[in-house]
Amino acid sequence: MFKFSKVEESRANKIFLQLDFAGGDADSDHPESEEFVGIKFSEYQNHLPQIQARIDQYKILKQILGQHNPKYEQIKDKYGDEIANLFDNTPNDPQADYQFKCYLSSIILIGYDEQCNKYQAYV
């Protein structure tokens, strides 16, 4: 007999950002998922400004991570606390002995309808 335990809630009618961080020459993958809490996929059109604002923050982060060894304090001074925190929470690159941040290779908006069918849009 198998003893099952619940490991994840249903993603039905939820919307997420999938952030694909990579290290080295894409030698290591570090995917992360961020849920838009309180936004149902069936109603995402009513929240487009909020969703787009978060996507824009990650696009700024992607540009920052494309620079050579950016510094936290410089990012905080130029972009503010929110972007600096996104930078600080970016995984470190194991291919560089964790000295540098990974780069953000893709941002995907993912939604699950009420039947849990998955939809995605690259942004």
Chain-wise SSE layout:
Blueprint: E1 14-23, E2 28-40, H1 48-65, H2 72-79, H3 81-88, E3 103-112, E4 118-122
Antiparallel strand pairs: 1-2, 1-3, 3-4
Helix pairs in contact: 1-3, 2-3
N-to-C span: 45 Å
Tally of DSSP helical segments: 3
Label the overall shape.
globular
SSE order: EEHHHEE
Relative strand content: 25-35%
Largest sheet: 4 strands, antiparallel
Q: What is the mean predicted local confidence, pLDDT?
A: 94
Number of strands: 4
Low-confidence stretches: none
Helix content: 25-40%
Report the C-alpha radius of gyration, rounded: 17 Å
Please explain how this structure is put together.
The protein has 123 residues and is an alpha+beta fold. It has one domain (14-122). It has helices at 48-65, 72-79, 81-88, and strands at residues 14-23, 28-40, 103-112, 118-122. It has a four-stranded antiparallel sheet, covered by helices on one side. A hairpin with a 5-residue loop joins β3 (103-112) and β4.
